[in-house]
């Protein structure tokens, strides 16, 4: 029998080595010391959530749906769909995606959620849930079911410009096999996932050249995608703040926002939460990377487990209370 326990640091290292089947796993497990698993930290999260209202923000691609070659076919699993539906029963839940709001709604198909499309530049929520209605750019409207809604579209004036640049991008990439240009209404993106690697530079150059004529648009780089966006002071982080405020949930003492995302654009939201010391940013990644998130999940199936854990916890709580 050993009487003394090894020092904590070396023990963690030993565990990491034990768990690692090869070097890349070892690197991942040591990265997780900095960004612990949200599943393993679950107890910690719910302890902090005591007497607070949890609000859930979810990115779509790569977070709820796996990244696939054809963005038109990025569907959630049936299991994930029910996990999101269940989570929305207990917590205000918003989807914040780079896709157009219509497209992301079509893919998710749950009316009980809030949606922010085009990296947060196109937000819709039921009028009845809105606290502050005096914002510039608010538009009263009705949704497809005829319910009264509020729209918030800070880049509305850019729609004609985006349409124009979309058509030009389609034109300049049409001879590149596998290139796919998508119009998200307030932004547009050029996917090169299916383009031969030899043409990646060429496609980037052409997009870049088109953008020279549009000083009010900016180009960002996502996962095998070039994204053209209006140059405005608005991002997923601003969208999170805006949604919290509009829904009357901006009091940091009563509210615990949780944001789950996998993309570079999600970093703006992680940053807002980190700097405001509010809630948790959770990065979805199977490879180590620098992030402003606090926690991590490895892939979409871990996201699903995490959402299910939240639901189970809430159900247990209401059983205890009731
Ligand atoms: Mg994503």
TrEMBL record:
What SUPFAM superfamilies does its record include?
HAD-like
Please list the GO terms describing molecular function.
trehalose-phosphatase activity
Tagged with keyword Signal: no
Main enzyme class: hydrolase
Q: In which pathway does it act?
A: Glycan biosynthesis; trehalose biosynthesis
- Cofactor(s) listed in the protein's UniProt record: a divalent metal cation
Tell me the domain of life: Eukaryota
Supply the EC number(s).
3.1.3.12
- Which keywords belong to this entry? Hydrolase, Stress response
Stored InterPro entries: HAD-like_sf (IPR036412), HAD-SF_hydro_IIB (IPR006379), HAD_sf (IPR023214), OTSB-like (IPR044651), Trehalose_PPase (IPR003337)
Q: Which Gene3D superfamilies match?
A: HAD superfamily/HAD-like
What's one Pfam family here? Trehalose_PPase
Q: Name one GO biological process term.
A: trehalose biosynthetic process
Per its record, the protein catalyses: alpha,alpha-trehalose 6-phosphate + H2O = alpha,alpha-trehalose + phosphate
Query: What does the UniProt record say this protein does?
Result: Removes the phosphate from trehalose 6-phosphate to produce free trehalose. Trehalose accumulation in plant may improve abiotic stress tolerance.
UniProt xrefs under PANTHER family: TREHALOSE 6-PHOSPHATE PHOSPHATASE
- Provide the family line: Belongs to the trehalose phosphatase family.
Protein name, per record:
Trehalose 6-phosphate phosphatase
Lineage of origin: Eukaryota, Viridiplantae, Streptophyta, Embryophyta, Tracheophyta
């Amino acid at each position: 029998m050993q009487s003394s326990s090894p020092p904590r640091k070396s023990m963690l290292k030993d565990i990491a080595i034990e768990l690692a089947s090869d070097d890349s796993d070892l690197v991942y497990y040591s990265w997780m010391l900095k960004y612990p698993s949200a599943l393993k930290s679950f107890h910690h999260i719910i302890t902090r959530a005591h007497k607070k209202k949890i609000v859930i923000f979810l990115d779509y691609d790569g977070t709820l749906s796996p990244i696939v070659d054809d963005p038109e076919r990025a569907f959630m699993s049936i299991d994930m769909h029910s996990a999101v539906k269940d989570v929305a029963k207990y917590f205000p839940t918003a989807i914040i995606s780079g896709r157009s709001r219509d497209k992301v709604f079509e893919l998710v198909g749950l009316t009980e959620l809030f949606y922010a499309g085009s990296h947060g530049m196109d937000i819709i929520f039921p009028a009845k849930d809105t606290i502050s209605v005096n914002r510039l750019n608010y538009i009263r409207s009705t949704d497809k079911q005829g319910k009264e809604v509020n729209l918030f579209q800070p880049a509305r004036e850019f729609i004609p410009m985006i349409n124009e640049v979309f058509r030009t991008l389609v034109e300049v990439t049409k001879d590149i096999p596998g290139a796919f240009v998508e119009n998200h209404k307030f932004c547009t993106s050029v996917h090169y996932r299916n383009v031969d690697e030899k043409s990646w530079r060429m496609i980037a150059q052409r997009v870049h050249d088109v953008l020279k004529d549009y000083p009010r648009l900016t180009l960002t780089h996502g996962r095998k995608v070039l994204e053209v966006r209006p140059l405005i002071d608005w991002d997923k982080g601003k969208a999170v703040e805006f949604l919290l405020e509009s829904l009357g949930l901006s009091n940091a003492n009563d509210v615990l926002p949780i944001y789950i995302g996998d993309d570079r654009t999600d970093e703006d939201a992680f940053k807002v939460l980190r700097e405001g010391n509010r809630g948790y940013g959770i990065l979805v990644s199977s490879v180590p990377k620098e992030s402003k998130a606090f926690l991590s999940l490895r892939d979409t199936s871990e996201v699903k487990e995490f959402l299910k854990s939240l639901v189970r916890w809430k159900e247990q709580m209401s059983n205890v209370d009731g």
